[in-house]
Design goal:
Layout: E1 12-18, E2 30-35, E3 42-46, E4 49-55, H1 58-69, E5 74-83, E6 89-97, E7 103-112, H2 114-122, H3 129-140, E8 143-144, E9 152-158, H4 159-176, H5 182-190, E10 204-208, E11 211-220, E12 223-233, E13 243-254, H6 255-273, H7 279-301, E14 303-306, E15 311-314, E16 319-323, E17 337-341, H8 348-351, H9 357-372, H10 410-413, E18 418-423, E19 427-430, E20 440-444, H11 447-465, H12 473-477, H13 497-503, H14 511-522, E21 526-530, H15 537-551, E22 562-566, H16 569-576, E23 580-581, E24 584-585, E25 587-588, H17 601-620, H18 624-642, H19 646-660, H20 669-683, H21 690-694, H22 700-722, H23 727-740, H24 751-764, H25 778-794, H26 800-812, H27 816-826, E26 829-833, H28 840-847, E27 855-861, H29 868-875, E28 878-886, H30 897-905, H31 916-922, H32 925-940, E29 945-947, H33 956-967, E30 995-999, E31 1009-1010, E32 1016-1017, H34 1019-1033, E33 1043-1047, H35 1050-1061, E34 1066-1070, E35 1075-1079, H36 1081-1084, E36 1085-1087, E37 1093-1096, E38 1098-1102, E39 1111-1117, H37 1124-1128, H38 1135-1142, H39 1148-1154, E40 1158-1166, H40 1174-1179, ...
Parallel strand pairs: 7-12, 7-13, 21-28, 21-29, 22-26, 22-27, 25-26, 27-28, 30-40, 30-41, 33-38, 33-39, 39-40
Antiparallel strand pairs: 1-4, 1-6, 2-3, 2-5, 3-4, 5-6, 8-9, 9-10, 9-13, 10-11, 11-12, 14-20, 15-16, 16-19, 17-18, 17-20, 18-19, 23-24, 31-32, 34-35, 36-37
Biased composition (Acidic residues): 390-399
Domain AAA+ ATPase: 523-912
Region (Disordered): 382-407
């Protein structure tokens, strides 16, 4: 290609001579100039060669070096060549400089519509898309990158300059149109000036060989894309100041194909929507009825008046008790929220009782799409994206902030829902900390529900309109959908040697695991991996992500290309904790309600990564500590100039003394010593010591809490000043030493003396009132300037390289949010729950708050737990593949039984076992799609589903039991190939055993009971569990094991916490509005030898909180028990009688989860006699079979 054809003028034409060797170049070859960092000579990069050159014209060479030093990019073209009599090669170069450095664009995918193709045809670029595509590529791709041949250097005009250039060309063409043929005249007449509203950075003009191609970012419904706006012949040289050199992987797409795919999908979805029993249609009806129920609840609660006369502060509940004059206990519960409203401007669903849910939800959907920048009729592309400030994402807003809510603070109350703390017969206690100064109106807040519903509806609309990232998603979901044509993708190899070694270091992958990875990587749309417990689902997911990362390594635009999602935070965090892609911690967005940002699993992992990264750097180069100290010294000096203080001056002098320690040739040594002595003397009376003195514990209760630690801290602060002091000062240090080594078994005889010492120190360090603002001391600044100049010149450890690394470490150890955002910017994998996949935080990181989010791949773990309407939220964001991983034999998705009952009453769902609608509602979308994708496999022969067939988590005895009881009846049995010796444990009383039963027989005194919330508990069971856990977890054999305690009932979980508190294993902490049980710090985590957290040491919870988890030993609390006489009176075949006796134990899914969390041993705790009855055989055959296993197998046992 000739630069002249691009109308790019040469800044210089100069003859150069290669210094080292002859270059195999020809006239017309294009390259670049650089400067050697080693020799400072000019270098020519051309045709994959690098050679130092010398200009024959020194004046031009100086100007070239000047341009390069200003970081201006360049292109050169060989315009002539010659050879001297001495045989030296000479090359004449034309050199063009561009404004600024090369701009990295990554992949530049530009859509061409019919108008552009018509313009290209008139310019003889070809008659079809393929020919035009090739002509544009050859005309724009100026210089191939030597390191990555898929990337090229391209000249372009960007931003507002692009707008000006195209409009300038437009005017010139109009002037010259009289001299053009009629068809060109017509083309010029019909072209319009570019819209000045699009004069942002997304405008671009590519300079091709004899043409200009204008590009802007456009919107097609919810689909943002780069599109060619105008193609014209070049008529004048481009203004040099406006041309930039970019590096990009250029690609052109036939936009009509994308639109056609969306249109075909939308048309087919309209036809499928008419099917009453269609999958999505049934869930739409469920959502509508759920919405109507929500509206009815808000209307039944109506308006609650809060006045000074009907309100009183409740110190026990720490909230405002408001008299409502009616019983709202059937409508409201603790945890629900109210919101403040203007009685003259009530929400439309209260002001207009005739408003239907359909109308209300449509209105809210339009508002939501406008707010998120994804409406098909709102906001033309190019509006500057701003962070969302709507405050509607409960889990994302106000991160890390705590507010004391005041009903009189209008600014606060205008946005924040008010939490209900307690519901009484005729009063409500709400989370408000003061009395109202006037009358206020409160209504039931639908904000939390509304956010969830808006996200679900937005996803559903995208599916219906064919505007999801994968336009044919709806067609794939609906049973009668017909597959749309899609481009065939190249096959991806399942595993590489690197991934095998990293992900499967101990045992090679099974054949089915490798097949599962291949199916997921090569699906044209959706893949489902079903995995029974312990079959390595998480391991397979990590391998898939590693392979996707390898495959995308060539692509420069990989930030957040993979989304990992799940129904619960635990599932996402569990998976994200296993990932370390490109040595970066994976980023999860969003947090649990009430959780601070600093306490999230992602924050903890990033903090650990920061510490480890910094430590590795320091270990490799110990001199970095000195560079860090020098960097800190520079910063402290700048801080001193702005906010001077003697304390800061002393801190700087101490650092300097460390640098010059042992050196005798320091010219300012006497000045440093004098300043140090003077400032140290002043510091001994500094108020900076006061916080440590005040923090000293001197009461018995307080000292037992953390008194020794605080005494040790104060001693550390005083020691530099008191160690060489008088007798009194040394006695103070001795007393603090005694206090700092105190143990719980020692007496507190020194407390009185400690209290007296604290009073003396408080008097000594009482602040002296200063009426004048501290001023910068000239002697300090003169000395510090000399130090900062002298140290790097006289200490060879303060190198430029070390300084750069120290700057990096300083940023690394600085703001955690900045580090989080930077890691997110370079991370391949993002994580979020299915709901928070549309949250504020992830939106800001992915699309700066607005627009449809798009990922190459979406992976949903524990997908069988996620309701279809929530699962669709991340699914609509996947462009190339959706990978659902889970097990429909474990915990099911959550549905509101009252809504299903109402649907039956309204005959939306037909009665009977064969009801298609009820089948759609009761079975997870994961299970439904498993069957649907098998149908698609028959249509196109592409494998989309697979079931893993070998478990590696659990002892083979327990693995075989779970397979036989929960999976074999459905033809999904799996193997347990690992030997029993790998799962051996030596806990007291159960050495080498795997299946155990701890019998807690029925008695009138120890039978199950119910709390106020109707949840069941059994005290004796809890006490037996606590006793056993205490023995095992504190033993030498159990110190490195993890333990899980599972119950089907929340009340029993609380009882276990209480029972373990007697042994100090659990404790109750007071939060803002309640008291919560937690695991004591010593029992919370297991750590490796470097102190890195490995896994939970103890978890206590209901079954729902254990899915996806694994522990060495699991204790399962049955709770249910009845007398033999009562059981005998029950009818064996009666489902009602079975439910009355066994309750939640009859849930096959929950029982499956609870009995498959262990690795080494499972201990069922409960009434053994109950599970041996005929009624139990009918209702809970799995538990009866387990008791028989405990009795009969040599690896079983009874406790």
């Amino acid at each position: 290609m000739d630069l002249k054809k691009l109308n790019i003028e040469f800044n210089h034409r100069v003859w150069v001579k290669p210094l080292s060797k002859a270059l195999p170049v020809e006239v017309g070859d294009i390259g670049r100039l650089t400067i050697s960092s080693r020799t400072q000579r000019l270098q020519l990069v051309i045709k994959g060669q690098l050679a130092s050159i010398e200009c024959r014209h020194l004046g031009i060479e100086k100007d070239i070096v000047l341009q390069l030093s200003r970081r201006n990019s360049n292109l050169v073209q060989v315009v002539g060549e010659s050879t001297s009599k001495e045989g030296e090669q000479g090359i004449e170069l034309g050199i063009s400089f561009f404004n600024g450095e090369v701009i990295e664009f990554g992949e530049l995918d530009i859509s061409l519509d019919g108008v552009i193709l018509g313009q290209a045809t008139k310019l003889d670029f070809g008659d079809n898309f393929s020919d035009v595509h090739q002509s544009l590529l050859s005309g724009c791709q100026l210089l191939q990158d030597d390191l990555d041949p898929e990337y090229f250097y391209l000249p372009a005009i960007l931003g507002s300059a692009a707008l000006d250039e195209l409009n300038r060309v437009h005017e010139l063409l109009k002037i010259e149109k009289q001299n053009q043929p009629n068809d060109i005249k017509e083309s010029i007449t019909n072209d319009e000036l570019l819209d000045s509203q699009q004069s942002l950075v997304h405008n671009m003009v590519l300079l091709g060989s004899g043409f200009q191609l204008a590009i802007t970012e456009q919107k097609n419904i919810d689909f943002n894309f780069l599109a060619a706006k105008k193609l014209v012949q070049r008529v004048n040289p481009a203004p040099g100041f406006a041309v930039r050199l970019i590096r990009a992987k250029l690609k052109f797409t036939d936009m009509d194909n994308v639109v056609r795919l969306q249109t075909l999908a939308s048309q087919q979805m309209k036809e499928l929507a008419e099917k009453e029993q269609g999958y999505l249609n049934v869930w739409d009806k469920y959502g509508d009825l759920e919405g109507e129920t929500l509206l009815r609840k808000a209307r039944d609660v109506a308006v609650i008046e809060c006045t000074p006369d009907n309100s009183i502060f409740d110190p026990k509940e720490k909230g405002l008790e408001v008299s409502v004059g009616r019983d709202l206990r059937k409508l409201l519960k603790a945890g629900d929220c109210l919101e403040l409203v203007n009685p003259e401007n009530l929400p439309n669903y209260l002001a207009g009782p005739e408003l239907s849910w359909s109308d209300y939800s449509t209105e809210k959907l339009v508002e939501y799409q406008k707010k998120k920048g994804i409406s098909p009729v709102l906001n033309p592309w190019g509006a500057v994206a701003k962070p969302s400030d709507d405050g509607n994402d409960v889990d994302d807003q106000n991160e890390g902030q705590e507010k004391k809510k005041s009903i009189n603070n209008k600014e606060c109350m205008a946005f924040d829902p008010i939490k209900i703390l307690k519901v009484n017969a005729d009063t409500l206690v709400i989370d408000i900390q003061d009395l109202p100064d006037r009358a206020y109106s409160l209504v039931y807040s639908m904000l939390g529900d509304q956010i969830q519903i808006e996200r679900r509806m937005s996803a559903r609309v995208n599916i219906q309109n064919g505007t999801s990232a994968m336009p044919n998603l709806g067609v794939l979901i609906e049973e009668d959908g017909t597959l749309l044509p899609r481009n065939k993708k190249p096959q991806i190899k399942a595993l590489t040697s690197f991934v095998k070694e990293k992900i499967f270091p101990k045992h090679p992958p099974t054949m089915m695991q490798e097949k599962a990875i291949s199916v997921a990587l090569n699906t044209p749309d959706i893949a489902i991996i079903q995995g029974p417990p312990g079959t390595g689902k998480t391991t397979v997911i990590t391998a898939i992500i590693e392979r996707l990362n390898q495959e995308s390594a060539k692509d420069k635009q990989v930030t957040g290309s993979i989304l990992v999602s799940g129904y619960q935070h635990d599932a996402v965090e569990n998976l994200m904790s296993r990932l370390s892609i490109n040595n970066l911690p994976a980023i999860k967005f969003g947090k649990r309600s009430g959780q601070t940002e600093a306490s999230t699993a992602t924050a903890v992992k990033i903090d650990h990564w920061r510490e480890q990264t910094a430590q590795r750097s320091l270990d490799k180069n110990p001199d970095l500590k000195l560079s860090q100290s020098y960097l800190t010294l520079e910063r402290d000096y700048r801080r001193y100039l702005k906010t001077p203080s003697d304390g800061l001056a002393l801190q700087m002098i101490k650092v300097v003394k460390e640098f010059i320690s042992g050196k005798t040739d320091v010219p300012f040594l006497s000045q440093i010593d004098a300043l140090h002595e003077e400032l140290t003397q002043q510091s001994s009376n500094s108020v900076e010591m006061l916080p440590y003195v005040r923090a000293l514990r001197v009461t018995e209760v307080g000292f037992k809490d953390d008194g020794s630690a605080r005494a040790a801290m104060l001693k550390t602060k005083l020691q530099p000043f008191f160690e060489a002091g008088d007798k009194e000062q040394r006695e103070i240090l001795e007393l603090l030493t005694l206090a700092s080594i105190w143990k719980a078994s020692d007496p507190l005889s020194f407390l009185a003396e400690l209290k007296e010492m604290k009073l003396d120190l408080l008097t000594r360090y009482a602040p002296i009132v200063q009426l004048k603002t501290p001023k910068v001391r000239k002697d300090v600044t003169r000395c510090m300037k000399r130090c900062l100049e002298w140290i790097p010149l006289n200490d060879n450890r303060i190198t430029e390289q070390n300084q750069v690394i120290s700057e990096y470490l300083a940023h690394l150890e600085g703001s955690s949010k900045e580090v989080h955002d930077t890691i997110a910017e370079y991370n391949v994998v993002y994580g979020a729950t299915t709901q928070q996949a549309e949250g504020i935080a992830i939106r800001q990181a992915k699309v700066e708050g607005k627009g449809l989010m798009r990922y190459d791949t979406i992976i949903v773990d524990e997908a069988a737990r996620t309701s279809p309407r929530d699962l669709m939220i991340p699914m609509v964001q996947a462009e190339n593949r959706i990978i659902l991983v889970g097990d429909h034999r474990q915990l099911p998705h959550m549905v509101d039984e009252t809504v299903i009952k109402k649907m039956k009453e309204m005959e939306i769902v037909q009665e009977g076992d064969q009801s298609i609608e009820e089948d759609h509602l009761k079975h997870s979308m994961f299970q439904y799609l498993f069957s649907r994708l098998q149908q698609l496999e028959k249509q196109d022969g592409i494998k989309r589903t697979i079931t893993l067939d070998a478990q590696f988590r659990s002892h083979p005895l327990l693995g075989q039991f779970a397979s036989e009881q929960f999976y074999q009846p459905y033809g999904e049995a799996y193997q347990s190939p690992l030997p029993a010796k790998l799962f051996d444990q030596q806990l007291q009383g159960i050495e080498s055993k795997a299946a155990l039963w701890l019998d807690v027989p029925y008695s009138e005194q120890t039978k199950e009971r119910r709390n106020q919330a109707k949840s069941r508990y059994r005290v004796l069971e809890a006490e037996k569990i606590a006793e056993q856990v205490k023995i095992w977890i504190d033993s030498e054999q159990g110190k490195d094991l993890s333990f899980g305690v599972i119950s089907f009932y929340k009340a029993q979980v609380q009882e276990v916490f209480k029972a373990l508190a007697k042994y100090g294993i659990t404790e109750q902490i007071e939060t803002e509005n309640s008291k919560d049980w937690v695991i004591s710090q010593d029992y919370a985590m297991l750590y490796d030898q470097q102190g890195k957290p490995l896994e939970e040491r103890l978890r206590i919870g209901t079954v729902d909180s254990f899915q996806g988890m694994e522990f060495d030993v699991v204790l399962l609390s049955m709770v249910r028990t009845q007398s033999a006489r009562e059981v005998m009176l029950k009818q064996v075949e009666s489902p009602k009688d079975q439910q009355n006796v066994f309750g939640h134990l009859m849930s096959k899914n929950r029982l499956c989860v609870s009995m498959t969390r262990q690795k080494k041993a499972l201990v069922v705790v409960g009434d053994a006699a109950l599970v041996q009855t005929a009624l139990a055989k009918q209702a809970i055959p799995e538990l009866q079979a387990y008791h028989q296993l405990c009795c009969s197998d040599e690896l079983g046992g009874l406790l």
